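Tetraacyldisaccharide 4'-kinase
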Amino acid sequence: MLSIWLHLLSWLYGLVVGLRNFLYDKKIKTSRCYIKPLLVNIGNLSAGGTGKTPFVIYLAQLFAEQKVVAVLSRGYKRKSSGFRLLNAHTTAATAGDEPWLIYQKTRQNFNIVVAVCENRIQGIAHITSYRPDVEIVLLDDAFQCRSIIPHVNILLTTFHRPFFTDHLLPLGRLREPQAASKRADIIIVTKCPSNLTKKNMTELQGTLQTYAPSAIFFTYIRYHKAVNIWSHQPVKVPSTLLLVTAIADPWPLYSHLKRAGYNVLHLAFPDHHWFKYKDIVHIINRFHALQDVNKAIITTEKDRARLINQPWTGLLTAFPILYIPMEVGFLPSNGHKECITQIDTLLYKPDRRGSNE
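Tokens:
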């Protein structure tokens, strides 16, 4: 019975989303084009878990080698509203955990600006007013934002759950039908096994291109040494770990730790969950229950944002808490050069330059 209701709700949701896309496709609802700044959208069809944040960081750092770049996000689940430019005093609560992490990873680069705003058109206007020299704006999680036409549309999907195997909400995790992937100029398959074969790539490329004739690239997660959340120094990881996550897809990190030979107990919270006092007490109790004396709490970089600078943070300072930094790697290793060449070609293609009118 539950399955029947989920199918019905998913069908109704699909009707609403389909109508919205139809109105934009037929130009009944208008979309805005820009000559400057150049807009690169990084998004997904699914409701999170595709590794979008590390890819945004990767692109921002790469473009900032030669240009002034801005990252614009909605600031999902932040405890503020309106336009905000992130600075040294910004917290994850006021900006959202993902924009806060993007800022923390790029704050030393003067060529990178990070901002949040629910209204992306207003956000772009504020950014260019503050920094007129901004040449590229990376629109974080804006694949469903049809009110703006980006110069390049990048769609992310995971290797272990590509969008064509999924279903619309609430039956599955898709925010749009699979056919919406045709708007993508580039598809990035994320969280691939690092030993992915050429044969596997070719097979997956063939399937993806039946949905969207896009350029397709493959990436994996490159994990770094664990870092102490308090001292910010690399540390040796103990044999037993309490893994605490509040992200959409914790499986890659859990698998990474298990393959490395650690004894892992996983405590999972909903994506973007703001920890409360009772959650912290629960975490501490589960940690105390671990029998091994050689143990620690370990979490993700993004979850770290919601564990520090909180009223109850003092309860945790006595415990060894680690996080594992990560970044994007391409398969094959020279794939990043082809990807950037493809983005540049699309960005500066004459027929993609819009009008501000």
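The chain has two domains: 31-222+331-352, 227-324.
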